[in-house]
């Protein structure tokens, strides 16, 4: 049932067929959302797919936004038990809620905190047994808060992402990030977003409909998959245990 | 199925543990959320119960009108009625003075705004307005008990809050005008919240933090955009692990657009208030009861904790009225019947969903 309903999203990402290696391996996926339409459900969906029982993927969630209990409850409803995955060494949760990179604080520079974070991530992945290291997903929720933690030095954040991308080549990790598109529009320079998008293999935009919000259609997804040279656009409705995706005008897939 | 520590299966209902005992002014909601009241029963209904503990509420002010203070007064007074500790920060020199303007709960049922007046005029009531009163009739029958034990009170803005509720309560007032950086405020918040840690189990007491006009220009730190954001982020993370709710009001026109959006994303619940123009003939024709309105309240975002399903409201724009100039009332907008139409009544009760296209009339 889950497989069928999310087919459009999985199709666009190449996840609809259970093939080895995992289609998102070594890829950079960027989710961009807005105030009106939150994109966290895409993150939850990808996390769930990554932790599916018939694979040995490992996921590292770097959470700036919500505590563990929040993700735990949501993923439970999606059919994924984060606590047991964590106990089995398939899921790692980095709680970054309180990360503060204050200048002059015991020599911690804004970059220092992020360097330490990268070190921790690298160490965690290197410490995995060989067999688990095949498919690792690094998920960041979300990048705008990482910028706040770095006190606005987006250079440090870009550096961090660059280092994470080396992980995608060294270990074939996939990097999945969430950011807010409406922050970077207009004058303040969309350089950060553009740089992110430049390096992205798969860009998922979560936007409201042009006509506003509705109870039956929560918004539209636009998936641009550079690897497959494909772009898809469809509507979605988020439920507790599934995301329904359908083409405009149709009720379901 | 792999076992978690407290449950046998992901899908079984947690019937074994009884509902945790909650202190005054708190109630349980779906997804393990616990709510406290905003102090405005109408708003609680719109938001699906109230403000969830551990959430950050942000209110975008109208820089030319003080309507956000109406929301704050009710919010703070509600907390004091329930004995919930309060931290209040404002750009004023002496924030304590504001406490004297907090309202008292409405005296008795007879004085209340929603008299069964509609019943007398039932015959004259236009059908499409009836929906507005349906929910209220149910509210009246809910058994009005002693004010203290109610989850949410109606407040009489003409009656000041009794002194004994203000003195001797845990109230911490902070003036943010002179702080060049936000470390003092952050420390005060941290101290305040350390008294209200969240642990699984009963919640004896919840706290309320109110920060008014956070980026007001008279505050020394107001041009330090990243510092303010950093403060909000650390406040939010502290709130998430405590049993409190924080409200921050701010005038978005004083922030650069990009930072304004960042602030909006930070909020779990996002509201905005706007004053009505004194002489707006177009709107006066379009909406009934326009003369009684003092402003608009927009609900942009509703807190989604422990769930990924967004809340889509039937209407996101509401009118703020002062009933009898004493009671704050939030109502759906009612479209007035159009004159000279061919008999079809415009029977929608203002179901205005927000649209990305903003026209002249921003519903």
From the helix content, strand content and strand pairing of chain A, which structural class follows?
alpha/beta
Could you give the order of strands across the largest sheet of chain B? 8-5-9-10-4-11-12-13-14
Largest sheet of chain A: 9 strands, mixed
Q: Can you write the helix and strand succession of chain B as a string? A: EEHEEHEHEHHEHEHEHEHEHEEE
Helix content of chain B: 10-25%
Which quaternary structure do these chains form? heterodimer
What average pLDDT do the residues of chain B reach? 80
List the uncertain runs of chain B: 110-119, 135-147, 341-360
Family (chain A): Belongs to the ELP6 family.
Organism (chain A): Hibiscus syriacus
Pathway (chain A): tRNA modification; 5-methoxycarbonylmethyl-2-thiouridine-tRNA biosynthesis
Protein name (chain A): Elongator complex protein 6
Model description:
The complex is a heterodimer of chains A (about 250) and B (about 375). Chain A has about 250 residues and is an alpha/beta fold. Chain A has one domain (about 20-100, about 105-210): P-loop containing nucleotide triphosphate hydrolases (Rossmann fold). Helices cover about 35% and strands about 20% of the residues of chain A. Chain A contains 9 helices and 9 strands. Chain A has helices spanning about 1-5, 5-15, 40-50, 70-80, 80-85, 110-125, 145-150, 155-170, 190-200, and strands spanning about 30-35, 60-65, 90-95, 135-140, 175-180, 200-205, 220-225, 230-240, 245. Chain A has a 9-stranded mixed beta sheet, with helices on both faces. In chain A, helix 3 crosses helix 4 (about 70-80). The longest helix of chain A has 17 residues, at about 110-125. The radius of gyration of chain A is 18 Å and the shape is globular. Chain A starts with a helix and ends in a 7-residue tail after the last strand. Chain B has about 375 residues and is an alpha/beta fold. Chain B contains 10 helices and 14 strands. Chain B has helices spanning about 40-45, 65-80, 95-100, 115-120, 130-140, 165, 185-195, 225-240, 255-265, 280-285, and strands spanning about 25-30, 35, 50, 55-60, 85-90, 105, 155-160, 170-175, 205-210, 245-250, 270-275, 295-300, 315-325, 325-330. In chain B, the strands form 3 sheets. In chain B, strands 8-5-9-10-4-11-12-13-14 form a 9-stranded mixed beta sheet, with helices on both faces. Chain B has a 3-stranded antiparallel beta sheet with strand order 1-2-3, with no helix packed on it. Mean pLDDT of chain B is about 80; it is low at about 110-120, about 135-145 and about 340-360. The chains are: A alpha/beta (about 250), B alpha/beta (about 375). At the A-B interface, helix 3, helix 4, helix 5 and helix 7 of A face helix 8 and helix 9 of B.
